[in-house]
Amino acid sequence: MRTIKRGVLLLLLSAMLAGCSSDIREISDIALVMLTAIDYDEQKQLYVFTVNCLEASTNTAGNTARKPEWIASASGPSVFEAARNLRSRAGKVLIWQHDKFFLIGESAARRSFYEVVDFLTRSRDIRLSSFLIVAQGNASELMRTRAETGDLLSNEMLGKVKNEQLWGKSLTLAVKDIVNEYTNPYRGIVTGKLSKAKPMGGNREVLFLSGGSVIQQGRLKEWLSGDDTLSIHILVNKKYWKALEFAEYVPFNDRRVALRMRVGKRSMSLVRAEGKPGIAIRIEMSGSITSIDKKLNLADPATLHGVEEAASRYMEQRLKVSLNRFQRELKSDIIGFSDYLRQHHPYEWKRISKTWVTDVYPTMPIRVRVDVAIPTIGMSEVIGGP
Amino acid sequence: MNNDKITPFQLGCLCFAFMSGFSTLYLLEAKLILHDVWIADITAMLATIVLLKLLVYIQHQFPTKNLSDIIVTLLGKWLGKSVLCFYLIGMTGLGILSLRSISLFYTTAILPNTSPNLIMLLVILVTTYAAYLGLSTISRATLMILPFFTVAMLVICAFIFQDVERNPFLPQFQHPVPLIAYSALVSFGFPFGKTAVFCFLFSETTNQKKLSKSCNIATVFSCAYLLISTYLAFGCLGENMFKTSSFPFFSAIQLVKFGEYIERIEIIIIGIWTILTLFEIIIVQYAFVKIVGRLFTVKNLSSFYLPVGAIFFAVAATSFINPAKLVAYDLTILPFAIIVPSILIPLCLICIIWFRKLGTKTTT
């Protein structure tokens, strides 16, 4: 019994040892960085580092209104030095562990991603699951834009990223995915694009997370439209389309049918066309009808089958247009066909890898087949009867 | 101090904890041959099973003796003691590797402002006391921690698996045979080859007939754990990120979150990981003291644990200060340094036993 008492006493005392560590930070002494923007000043050749912070002790719904976000910028020759120069103005210790967003300014992204991404992966504070978004123009300026909803900007951004699954015209990657792919010489990647514009009926500019930014050979190459970004959502990995829902307005005879679409399955295979290696993609989608512009008897199986066929051909055409743009205009394998070939057809890949970027990919035949099924037509069949 | 013998099941659990301590921290062999790593790991596991068979066979020839006694009996007093000294050097290397690895991990990922020497000192104090308490106490502690480890790992692995998009072990057979063989050697060096330390505990089990079975099962489970961790880390992070990351499996665990806001659950794994690494150091220290006792023919070993801990700490404080050297040691020295104590010496002992048997038969 005496030993147990001594043991318990020792355990209680050992709990106090935590205070001896030099890694201890009191919660009242820290400020949580919620967003970080990194720009590059070409003229001065300096990185501009901007943070959006909250005091940790005020990070509750009741207190945030009382103490606003603190936004500050500093510059330096390296990203780290710019971040450290912020300390001259910060009244608290800045903590990055809750930062979910890194906005990279267009100038920094067009220059080189290497130092920025290296900084993000080397620091133990920064989570690899944070999102990396390229800002159209100056990232610092976008960060200073007031949130349209009146919420914290970081909360609003998180909502925008979550909503990507509900419309598909934006695709934001985590730092982990960017690091994994951006040095790959055979392919490009697409991450989110943040821009600023006046919304319909609004009188001040607000932030839009729409479209994508193509990164290839370690730098920003091109912006991508919302429609092309949706195609990427559908064609790239399952994690991007498994929860995706998007709207399509499909022409059928002289009518237009609005559908809420989902991707059910996507497969890829290597085919040969005219002696060349090609890719065949097969996608199974399901749609549910949300509206029709004119009367159409959807209770009739033949009509419904016709709509399914029309939707299939429409989606095929849509994806082909995007793929054609990626191949011919962008000349960037942003879908990751090279990864597929390297994994599943290594011998073929060895044969073509040297000329993949210059010759093979831009001229490679790509077949797309889409099968759309409409398992539900909604709560009404035909307004006014068949 | 408890000198009770342990059961084969306890030995198996200890063996698993010993091999799996921080086996998934660096995943160096996977960084070498990526998709073909499973070949290297399975080859190393099979080699370990063969090695264990040999060691158990040696033990069965002298059921009442410890391996250090067997070595002295078979090789003679001076040669035997020299071989034991060689084992001591190897064990010091293993202990220091574990100490340095745990301090490197802590100072890189969790406590950047804490001195690595302080971390090592705290670890060595704990392990010294644990080794002093005896094998029976250590094995009971292992039995207590392994269920937590299993449940936590299964939950974490299930969550990481959701992020695995493609089979990361594809394409297969894309690396030359010599490179695969070298990777198998790296895998054998760390973590499988250190099983050789374990044979010094064989004499302390109650039922020696089940030695082989319990150790083999532990080896298979260790290999499964290593392969699952590699598969998940590789599949979740992707090839380039996997190669980039200093601690790939830890990076993969960091990505796990329950819902949108419950993150940082890697801290549970860090705790369990640390405890397993402690077992590794404890067993090395325990076997080290046993050998020292045999070298100086001392019965009461209790006064040796603290000096041995101090030696481990002193050597660790002055070794592998540069983390690159630690990785270089794991990649270039350990795979070859482990061959002599883990393969050549057991083979020599077997040959001597056979020759002796042959000599006895001829005489009769």
UniProtKB/TrEMBL annotation, chain A:
Principal location class: membrane
Keyword set includes Lipoprotein: yes
Domain Spore germination protein N-terminal: from-to ranges: 23-189
Signal peptide coordinates: 1-20
Segments forming domain Spore germination GerAC-like C-terminal: 210-378
GO CC annotation: membrane
Record flagged with keyword rRNA processing: no
Keywords assigned by UniProt, alphabetized: Germination, Lipoprotein, Membrane, Palmitate, Signal
GO terms for biological process, alphabetical: spore germination
Record membrane topology: Lipid-anchor
PROSITE patterns, alphabetized: PROKAR_LIPOPROTEIN
Intracellular or extracellular location(s): Membrane
Domain of life according to the entry: Bacteria
Pfam families named in the record: Spore_GerAC, Spore_GerAC_N
Cross-referenced InterPro entries: GerAC_N, Spore_GerAC-like, Spore_GerAC-like_C, Spore_GerAC_C_sf
Family: Belongs to the GerABKC lipoprotein family.
Protein's name in the database: Ger(X)C family spore germination protein
Organism listed in the record: Paenibacillus sacheonensis
Automatic annotation (TrEMBL), chain B:
Transmembrane region(s): 7-26, 38-58, 84-106, 118-135, 142-161, 181-203, 215-234, 267-289, 301-321, 333-355
The keyword Electron transport appears for this protein: no
Gene Ontology cellular component list: membrane
Membrane topology: Multi-pass membrane protein
Keyword Cell membrane: no
A Gene Ontology BP annotation from the UniProt entry: spore germination
Keyword annotations of the record: Germination, Membrane, Transmembrane, Transmembrane helix, Transport
Major localization class: membrane
Residue stretches in coiled coil: none
Annotated compartments: Membrane
Family the UniProt entry places it in: Belongs to the amino acid-polyamine-organocation (APC) superfamily. Spore germination protein (SGP) (TC 2.A.3.9) family.
UniProt-listed NCBIfam families: 2A0309
Name used for this protein in its record: Endospore germination permease
